Amino acid sequence: MGLAMRMQRWRIRVTGVVQGVGYRPFVWRLAHSSRLSGWVRNDSMGVLIEAQGSRTELAEFCGRLRSEAPSLSLVRDILHETIDSVPKEHAFRINTGQKEADPHAFVSPDVSICSDCLAEINDPADRRYQYPFTNCTACGPRYTIITKLPYDRASTTMSDFEMCTSCRREYDNPADRRFHAQPNACPECGPSTWFIKSGENQEIRGRDAMQAVKESVARGGIVAIKGVGGFHLACDARNSEAVAKLRERKHRFEKPLAVMVADIATCESIAVLSDADRVLLESRQRPIVVLHRQEGAESLCELVAPGSDFVGVVLAYSPLHSLLLRPGDVWVMTSGNLSDEPIAYDNDDAIERLRKIADAFLLHDRRIETVCDDSVLRVLDGEVLPIRRSRGYAPLPIKLPTDGPPVLAVGGEIKATACVTKGHHCFLSQHIGDMGNQETLSAMENAVDHLLRLYNIKPDSVVADQHPNYLSSAWAEQFSRKHAVPMLRVQHHHAHVASLLAEHSIVPEEKIIGVCFDGTGFGTDEAIWGGEWLIANASDFERYAHLAYLPLPGGDACIRHPSRSALAALYQAGIEWSDSLASVFVTAAKERTVLDQQLQRNFRCVPSSSMGRLFDAVASLCGVRHVVSYEGQAAMECEAIAARKLDESQFKPYDITVIDGDIQQIDTTHLIHQIVSELLRKRSAADILVRFHLTVAEMIARISLNARAKHRIDRVGLTGGVFQNVLLTRLARQRLMHEGFEVLTHTIVPPNDGGLALGQAWIAQRRTVLLHRERYLFGGEAPSYDQDR
Residues 129, 225: one domain? Predict the structure, then answer.
């Protein structure tokens, strides 16, 4: 017999997202079709296989383990070694999982209902007809129910429910699509739902509960619905009174509300879809996708997204949602919380916190281990632009190009996420919220505890933002003291650039021109930065250029009042505060006097290079927005107005003045003079905003060209919350590419502060590595990190 036909036995290690996604039954079927013997099992590192056959058969088998893997899996590595053969072995079996001390497996995110399960819940002859917790290995909850690795039922909140005989038969059958589907259940043995009215104890259970929700929404009620990762507040998106009531009770007066629909046809009745939008909407992650509204759409009231050209739409993604919404229904489906609080996910807590908002509750008894809000995405030239990375994406790892010690990073103050590192991988948490209260701090602590416990990580250090007053930094200090690990601080905009470098797996020594535009970030000179060009890599940065400082009277008060930024910009430019300018006209005379005195005396005026505040100033000057009720409101409205006009005719950017020096500056006073001149000549706000967007794109290109000439760098990265603006990002990228630059944008983590923790973690990891190496060179112990096996 030739060498190729000689019997061999290989031990095969498969790593990645390979648990809870149907990978073991896939291996079992593949081994049977390949006539191999042996076994497969889960363990804390992923999937372990011993397969026996000819060398040719085994090599083909290994190739198919990746090429034919289940759609929900994410195979990272397949390694094998030859071991002793087992005589007289003829079968291939699936063994039960075995726990090891150091988990290296990856956890699958929660996945939307599959077509097979959807067909079952709509089939009156099926035993799972209208059962809202139907799932299989191709769909259902994962991250929100897992308590520890490896991923087995005993390690999930489904351990509360003992499977009936029928479900156990499916669970134990390798040929069944529910083989080892950990959340497997049916009406006989699984979780159940019930409906109660706010302030009442009478329960309506089962299918009647679902009908009660529909009737309540149809009557104009607000229902708090417990879903996969927490509670939503739902009402009829066509009912203006219901939406107004929800806004009033939730204290969310203008910020757009997301809506849920049952199918693409309904979505097309309210929004304009590109092919890329459709792919995102129907993806297994089922995020909220920000879409252009259909003009005159009757199935959506104006209060859902007042004054906006956009609407966030999500397709029903769980069996519970699929049973509630019919084709044609459009329901507001917004986070179940009071504004600025984390979303509710526990029944008793939800009833207590949401009883003044919701008229009724749809509850269930499947415990949520990890709260997980909906993800939000936009499409930019056919590519994904994340706005919020949460359900469906967290906690998929982001692979770094280098190894390093375990680090915990806690992000910033708004759109908070946490990040932990292990070897080459960063695990970014789900969206936590804005760190403005004790409830959100507790949510941060729970998210961190879950990630550390899940992956058995003990951080060598904890890292936070440099801002002295961030609550997240205070929490990091407490963690540092409690666990006796050093605390590091990272500059805000360097972290933004590093997050972009990390997601593109750029080697740590390589520098890019990082263009970081946002609203607020504490600078190394204690000013507020936010219009920055950095020459940066994963270890360090230098500030190459920035917007000239604008004095902000009252500091953070200008964030809520763009008119203040406008008046400050006028003052700095030496332009009289004339009532003919909208920003001046809307400001009361008494307030103008106070602001003028503050600016003259430089009293409580914070210097800021923020592009976000420049957008605010221009928005107010153009009469678009003088007071905001949510972050980024003025800039979003400016983008929408400019985008409408840009398609109609061509415009030129305003003249740009660059102040040379060791650090270059953009003179914004010259820009303000040009804008005011056009306003006084009655030029429309739309025309001015188009030219403003073009000017900012030209600024980016102009300074980047200067940086390339000095530093010989051809790669530019666009990061920071301002680059949620699709119009600006598109214009800047086109302009840079025309000049021959390679342009990096975000496609995995948000450009806003939701991606900050990733950058912090990688900077801290690289600095620790360099410090260890330096100590080693002077006679210390050689650095050693847990390698990915």
Answer: no
